[in-house]
Design a protein that fits this description.
about 130 residues, mainly beta, seven-stranded mixed β-sheet, four-stranded antiparallel β-sheet
Length: about 130
Amino acid sequence: QVQLVESGGGLVQAGGSLRLSCAASGRTFSSYAMGWFRQTPGKERNFVARISSNTLRTTYANSVKGRFTISRDNAKNTVVLQMNSLKPEDTAVYYCAADQTVASLTYPRTMPNEYEFWGQGTQVTVSS
């Protein structure tokens, strides 16, 4: 079992930056791949970024590539999403999630139903 708590959301102007953190409890955190997703009202939850359990592999949605960076610290049970050059279309509730299955080289596991544990979400609002 993994419990996840996100923090760091808020209101920022377009072009600004935010740093989201996800704190995990549980001794097996380092065995999970971690992902970030986002969701706006009435829309599906969409993949943002993923990092493998050993930090060696990261995957990003095309919409955030080059602007967002995912990282993790297994010693501190945390995963971070650094978001730069934010745009109004980045406005959403951001969720962190844990996946115990290793992704293959050809399929990075970006669907919400592939992740077993979820945080409660943190709101990010980007004003124009």
